[in-house]
Specification:
The structure holds 2 protein chains of 2 kinds.
Chain A lengths: L2 E6 L2 H13 L4 E3 L8 E3 L4 E6 L4 H7 L4 E5 H7 L7 E6 L5 E8 L8 H15 L3 E5 L2 H11 L4 E5 L15 E6 L3 H5 L2 E12 L1 E6 L6 H14 L8
Parallel strand pairs in A: 1-4, 1-5, 8-9, 8-10
Antiparallel strand pairs in A: 2-3, 5-12, 6-12, 7-10, 7-11
Chain B lengths: L3 H17 L3 E2 L5 E3 H8 L2 H5 L2 E4 L3 E5 L4 H11 L4 E10 L11 E10 L4 H16 L5 E6 H10 L4 H9 L4 H11 L8 H10 L1 H8 L8 H15 L6 H11 L2 E3 H14 L4 H16 L8 E3 L13 E6 L10 E5 L1 H7 L7 E6 L1 H11 L1
Helix pairs in contact in B: 1-16, 5-14, 6-12, 7-8, 9-10, 12-13, 13-14
Classes of the chains: A alpha/beta, B alpha+beta.
Chain lengths: 235, 366
């Protein structure tokens, strides 16, 4: 039995993840040809699985991988009641991005969620439909706005170029990931002062539903010792 | 172990009982058009209802309740007065890990009757109390009409009242608004409003950025005017805020609650008609054999449930099983009939029983 560790399969996210493990004395290396999605860990009983970061939440939930690295936003968005399905073992300190609510700069009267709520009520009365917020983070945005008591809005799905939806008049506001805010500003949008939904970073997660036999447990304990990370009490 | 067959038998028994009371059996489609429900409940319904896609007719939802389709059916074609009953599955998505069922049977009873709303309230409650009597449940009652009347009675602008009324069903936001309107929260937008006064709304909007999107300059300017009016509005008098707070936290036996509401009506005379209504309802309930002396009354009951109840509300709970949802719930939803009635409306009250819980509790008692 081996502990399956799911890691991002390409790009800077993969490189930085490999570096993070390497810096902590656990070397990861690509195996096979350049194009082959294969890698190995310098640790007993650990098998590296390379996969798309967007598929890591699903694989964690299904228990097909024991550990996985992906953005914390993707786990929170993809898994209902996520803490019952996965543990956050360590933030890796890169891949930072904020999920925020943004509105047109011209909305001088809207600075907070409270303003957004009032604007949404007036918008619905004037235009006959709920104020549209474009996003691909439906669960996170809906839960955030429910908690804040914002009403009279609707979410419209946007899988890309979300910042352009306001100008295209397919939405009145957006909820999207940003790291510097530059794209938002370029599209004449501004952040709400209390509109930060989630501060995401690359994170090492543990699947709660995977099969944790003695061998997998021992492998995780050994790995946690080398990486210098704690494990949850319920483990 | 309660089997599906047991639950169906129980449901059929309740369904027959409601028909024996004179209710007409009605059906509703399981696949409901999503837009009606979304417009009514907002985005939150997506977290509670199963959404699916019809290739030709667009988004559909698996029926999360019967009330909406039954009201639509009545408003389209029903004769008055009407009593309906229905039996069937409803579907509720669970976003958190729990034992709560995501699919279960409901049997309902709904009354559309203009003649005497208080008597109709009592009729529905007494019927449910009788049907559920063998289970020894605790009944909770309330009346959202009192809170709504109290808000309408506040000495403040229509805009502030509308903001509070809009959030009666979101207690936290309601609280924040009440604090602000009562003068307890710091002034907002002071710099912005000063700039608008100095330079005019147009100049302030122009300086901020290009106009993009459907929310127009007119919309923005209208809100600036609203903010200016609000900044010039005096706080809601302390005595009125205190009276409203007394109502929000009121929880007692019905006669004691009625007594306290009479006291509160001294500060907020406009709630007197809704307090009279509670008294008349208690009389009607007593006439139907309900022991109103011990009947719980909670003014905020029903504020966190689906937001269509706007008058009498009730629920029946198994006290020994706090893990279970209420066995039955119901209430008055006059406003819903006007939302779905396209200009027409009719006083309506009704409730639903979960035969699955009735069967489980009856079996546990044996």
């Amino acid at each position: 039995m081996t502990l399956r560790l799911g890691l991002p399969s390409k790009g800077r996210l993969m490189e930085k993840t490999f570096d993070w493990f390497g810096d902590r004395g656990l070397a990861l290396s690509r195996t096979g040809s350049d194009r082959e999605y294969a890698a190995a860990a310098d640790a007993d009983g650990v098998q590296v699985v390379l996969l798309s970061a967007s598929e890591v939440p699903r694989e964690l939930a299904a228990g097909r991988i024991h550990l996985g690295v992906t953005g914390s936003d993707l786990v929170r968005e993809g898994l209902a009641d996520w803490t019952t399905q996965a543990d956050d073992l360590a933030g890796l300190g890169f891949g930072f991005a904020d999920l925020v609510i943004a509105v047109p700069k011209g909305w001088v009267d809207v600075e907070t969620l409270d303003d957004l709520d009032a604007a949404a009520a007036a918008f619905r009365a004037a235009h006959g439909f709920r104020l549209r917020i474009a996003t691909k983070y439906h669960r996170l945005v809906r839960e955030f706005l429910r908690e804040a008591g914002v009403a009279d809005y609707q979410l419209v799905d946007s899988q890309g170029a979300t910042e352009g939806t306001v100008k295209n008049e397919t939405a009145e506001a957006v909820a999207d990931i940003t790291s510097t805010g530059e794209t938002l500003r370029a599209n004449h949008l501004k952040l709400l002062s209390d509109g930060l939904i989630h501060r995401s970073q690359a994170t090492l997660f543990r699947s709660r539903g995977a099969r944790w036999g003695d061998a997998e447990k021992a492998a995780l304990v050994g790995m946690a010792g080398r990486l210098g990370i704690g494990l949850p009490d319920h483990f | 172990m309660t089997t599906k067959a047991d639950i169906r038998t129980e449901a059929a028994r309740l369904f027959a009982r409601f028909q024996a009371e004179g209710a007409v059996p009605v059906e509703a489609d399981i696949l409901q058009p999503a837009d009606t429900l979304l417009d009514l409940y907002g985005e939150d319904i997506r977290a509670r209802a199963y959404v699916t896609r019809d290739p030709l007719r667009g988004e559909r939802m698996l029926r999360p309740d019967f009330t909406v389709p039954v009201v639509q059916m009545h408003m389209d074609s029903g004769a008055e007065p009407a009593r309906y009953t229905y039996m069937g599955e409803v579907f509720r998505k669970q976003e958190e890990v729990s034992e709560r069922a995501s699919e279960y049977l409901q049997v309902g009873y709904e009354v559309f009757d203009r003649a005497n709303p208080v008597a109709a309230d009592a009729e529905v409650f007494a019927l449910f109390a009788d049907v559920l009597a063998p289970l020894g449940l605790r009944a909770a009652t309330g009346d959202l009409g009192v809170i709504l009347a109290a808000v309408r009675a506040l000495s403040t602008t229509e805009r502030r009242k509308a903001a509070l009324l809009r959030h009666v069903w979101r207690p936290r936001r309601f609280r924040a608004l009440l604090d602000r309107f009562g003068g307890g929260a710091p002034a907002r937008h002071a710099g912005l409003l000063a700039a608008v006064t100095r330079d005019g709304a147009d100049a302030v909007i122009d300086a901020a950025g290009p106009a993009i999107g459907l929310r127009s300059r007119t919309d923005i300017a209208a809100r600036l005017t609203a903010l200016q009016e609000d900044a010039a509005t005096p706080p809601i008098p302390e005595a009125e805020v205190a009276a409203l707070e007394d109502i929000l936290t009121l929880r007692d036996t019905s006669p004691a609650a009625l007594e306290r509401l009479r006291d509160t009506a001294v500060d907020l005379p406009a709630i007197a008609p809704s307090v009279d209504r509670i008294e008349a309802r208690l009389d009607a309930l007593a006439a139907r054999g309900i022991d109103v002396e011990t009947l719980d009354f909670e003014a905020s009951y029903g504020r966190t449930t689906l937001e269509y109840y706007d008058g009498f509300v009730f629920g029946f709970y198994a006290e020994a099983r706090p893990d279970l949802p209420p066995v039955a719930t119901g209430g008055r939803y006059d406003a819903l009939t006007s939302v779905l009635g396209q200009g027409r409306s009719i006083p309506a009250v009704g409730g639903v029983i979960r035969p699955g819980l009735v069967a489980a509790l009856a079996e546990g008692a044996r």
